[in-house]
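FAQ
Q: What does a multi-component entry look like?
A: The components come first, one per line:
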Amino acid sequence: MVTKAEAETMLNEGDRIAQTVTERRPKEHVPYVGVGLLTALVIPGFDLFDRTTWGWVTIAIAGYAACMTYFGSRRWIAVRERSPQWTWPAISVWMMLMGVSATLLDGHTALAYTIAGIAAAIPPLAWGLRLRRTS
Amino acid sequence: MSTPATSHPRTRLNELIHQPIRFSMMAALSKADELEFRFLRDTLAVSDSVLSRHASALEEAGYITIRKGHVGKWPRTWHSLTDNGRTALDDHVAALRELVA
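Then the predicted structure of the entire assembly, as tokens:
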């Protein structure tokens, strides 16, 4: 026989536990927004300083290292949240396309890397902001 | 006409989930895709063996899945709620809320 008081206690305990998990859940939007901001802020600089592909390689390595550090964090390991599996591959392909476009446009316009950098940053930023809004 | 006895919320409580540790475990799992064993153990304040026993019972019922993997060279175990488990938990919580109302 379950009394009203027992049912109430159980519900309260369930809510408390659920709240604890919610508070400790990783902020999944962070790596997306981080990669988006890094791309938007650094790539346009190639129009001014460095027009070689080494800049893209540097960004890719820095972004990958930042994401792996985040994904390896205790918070992420303890409480996992997953976006659809296609998001990171899709964003990577888009960024590579933008990199190629910037290389092709370079010489034709002074803003090749600015345009490509901003365009490359839009998907991760948009997805990150969407996650932030819905989580 | 009187309401049939079977419609009373008490009869809709799930006995397996009603055990306090299992209920807390499922409430925790309902808020994340996967929870790591140690996180669950510390959050529920239970011992390793108690958590394992209840996790096995829920897994046998098809309410959770247990996945083993590694982080670096360290073995880790993650738990997640199945669709059946989520439905069962929702039904159980609904029955509890009716009892409280």
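Q: Is there any commentary attached?
A: Sometimes. For this entry: The CA atoms of residues 17 and 23 of chain B lie 5 Å apart.
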